Amino acid sequence: MDEFARIRHWTDGRQSPSLLASQGVVLGIGDDAAVVGAPPSARGELEWLLAVDTMVETVHFNDATMAEEDVGWKALAANVSDIAAMGGTPRHALVSISVPQAWGPERVRRLYDGLYACAAHYGVAVIGGDTTSSPLHVVVAVTVTGTVAAGAAIRRAGARPGDAVFVTGAAGMAAAGLHYLLAAAAAGGTAPGAQVRPVPLAAAEAAGTAALVQAHRRPAPSVRAAALLAARGTVTSLNDVSDGLASEAWEIAEASGIVLALRESRLPRSGSLTAYAHRCGEDPLSWILYGGEDYVLLGTIAAEDADAAKAELEAAGLPMYIIGAAEEGAAAVELIRDRGADRGTDNGRGSASSHRREPLAKRGYNHFGG
């Protein structure tokens, strides 16, 4: 099967003409470049958002943790989350993949199965890309476009003193899921020369870690939450949690020139994460703050609108948690740890007698360890 036959095998007939038309696609896969126009549903003047993310075998995934379909889903989901983090709507994807001979066309087709499943879930039109051979490992690079009303993109740099800090879901679950998968793979062992297969979801369900495993393998970007929050016009900064909650909080603090004070008692904790952490002797707070790859949103919102925004999202079946406040001061992130009293305070400060404030380390996932 030559290059062009493989491309057809992986992409032909995957998306309906109506889906492509809904995203303004004039010409999709099959020519030297795609042609797109403004989506028919878009109103008013638009600005385009562009994001790219790359996944490398042995760096971002391996056979012991993710099936091929999971790799495809996650490669697209990471980019969809970046568009949501700007308050935008994801529209199109370009997919470049480098494949070693050992993978073969059917394994790559399963990767595309997962990618197209994610595209269908979020209404993204896959319109082109590139295919090359690779000497050893699979590399998947996805570029996603999105749209936002002109001047309405939400940046990291807009947080103001007095704003409330929020997240749209529990952090740390993906890191806990990865910990479980690696531990299970190490315990299981593999015969020499045999292909390692990831832990089946049924086994994770029996271990009480299915939600954690799914968080790692099939993250769910907060696209609907981003749209509702952006429409309110009161969100002042936004970031997605890809490298860890602490790392993303620092990015907002530095871009905005403020202090983010996070309340430990208000950080949402998954029951399965807490149970698994206790079972294996790990600190769940470490995963929550420094784990990464959760793809929930972290942001700031005008304090007077925080409760109403939370109510709107919850009415739509979407979580939103108020976890702290933005304060004046040189860029910093602090964690407010409760001593057992005054745990109902929402302002992120608390009294000196009931709380202690600690600087939160500026760390999370970093490819180059800087």
TrEMBL record:
Catalytic activity reported: thiamine phosphate + ATP = thiamine diphosphate + ADP
Keyword terms, alphabetized: ATP-binding, Kinase, Magnesium, Metal-binding, Nucleotide-binding, Thiamine biosynthesis, Transferase
InterPro entries the record matches: PurM-like_C_dom (IPR010918), PurM-like_C_sf (IPR036676), PurM-like_N (IPR016188), PurM-like_N_sf (IPR036921), ThiL-like (IPR006283)
Residues that bind ATP: Y112, G129, D130, R156, S242
Record keyword Metal-binding present: yes
EC code: 2.7.4.16
Residues bound to Mg(2+) 2: D53, D82
Keyword Kinase: yes
Residues annotated as binding Mg(2+) 3: D32, D82, D240
Region span, Disordered: 341-370
Binding sites annotated in the UniProt record for Mg(2+) 1: D53, D130
Domain of life from the UniProt record: Bacteria
Binding site residues for substrate: H60, E293, Y365
Further comment found in the protein's record: Reaction mechanism of ThiL seems to utilize a direct, inline transfer of the gamma-phosphate of ATP to TMP rather than a phosphorylated enzyme intermediate.
Function: Catalyzes the ATP-dependent phosphorylation of thiamine-monophosphate (TMP) to form thiamine-pyrophosphate (TPP), the active form of vitamin B1.
Protein name (Swiss-Prot/TrEMBL): Thiamine-monophosphate kinase
UniProt organism field: Paenibacillus sacheonensis
